[in-house]
Write a structure and sequence with these properties.
alpha+beta, Arc Repressor Mutant, subunit A, 2 domains, 10 helices, 46% helix, elongated, transcription regulation, DNA-binding, transcription
Length: 254
């Protein structure tokens, strides 16, 4: 039974390359045509493959519907949380997860620092969109016309002397973040708080969330926090791999 299932599933990546006839399927599976036909008929009955008028087979609409349903039901917070906890246990600092929704960037998860000095961020609360590292990552991934339109309608409050002062400066920062693949907020929102962030990507490579590590100067300096960047990026990559189905749902690579 397991061999039959394995052979049937092996047909799907073959057809993902393009339509194939019975002989091609049989050759790829190294089985007799009658065996290949039986497998194709079963997949066809379930809507996973479709037989064209030229007698070649292609992937069926049901497969795409299932894939879309699976993507829509993915909960990035649920997938990310164990990784965030492990990162927090490793470094001790506050860890956040954020998403971009309806023009706002919101925290959807937080693991508190083990140090006495805590951050006042809350799950469900919008971030300071023009300075927060997670916001920079999420907005940098938008198509260029959307980035520009959004930047031009934002206000640019000067929370500190390091805050982003204007739309042109913000767009330059987003270009930089887009190129390097990570972001920081070094005293841009609060003079004493620094943050480093990395993106969580979906199957299409687009940024679906952003995660960060934040800490006050009294605990670690900005330079010390930046040494955690490789660990933060590995954690984000591990979440991305699990979210997109590229890696098994085991512990992250960090």
């Amino acid at each position: 039974m397991s061999q039959t299932v394995d052979r049937a599933l092996s047909i799907l990546p073959l057809l993902a390359e393009g339509p194939a006839d019975l002989g091609q399927v049989a050759d790829r599976l190294d089985v007799h045509k009658s065996t290949a036909l039986r497998l194709l008929r079963t997949l066809h009955e379930h809507g996973l493959v479709y037989r064209q008028s030229d007698q070649r087979y292609r992937l069926g609409a049901r497969l795409f519907a299932l894939a879309q349903e699976a993507v829509e039901n993915l909960d990035v917070r649920e997938i990310a949380h164990p990784h965030l906890v492990r990162l927090n246990e490793s470094c001790g600092h506050t860890v956040h997860l954020a998403v971009h929704e309806d023009g706002e960037v919101l925290y959807i998860d937080k693991v508190e620092s083990r140090y006495p000095v805590r951050m006042y961020s809350r799950i469900g609360k919008p971030v300071a969109i023009t300075v927060a590292a997670v916001a920079k990552l999420l907005l940098a991934d938008l198509p260029e016309p959307e980035r520009r339109a959004l930047a031009e309608k934002l206000d640019y409050p000067m929370y500190t002397s390091r805050s982003t002062p204007s739309a042109p400066a913000f767009l330059r920062e987003l270009d930089k973040v887009r190129e390097q693949g990570w972001a920081t907020d070094l005293g841009g929102h609060e003079e004493s708080i620094n943050c480093v962030a990395a993106p969580v990507r979906g199957t299409d490579g687009r940024v679906v969330a952003a995660m960060s590590v934040s800490a006050p100067n009294v605990v670690v300096t900005a330079d010390e926090l930046l040494t955690l960047l490789p660990l933060v990026r590995r954690t984000a990559d591990a979440i991305s791999g699990e979210y997109s189905g590229r890696t098994p749902t085991k512990e992250n690579s960090s």
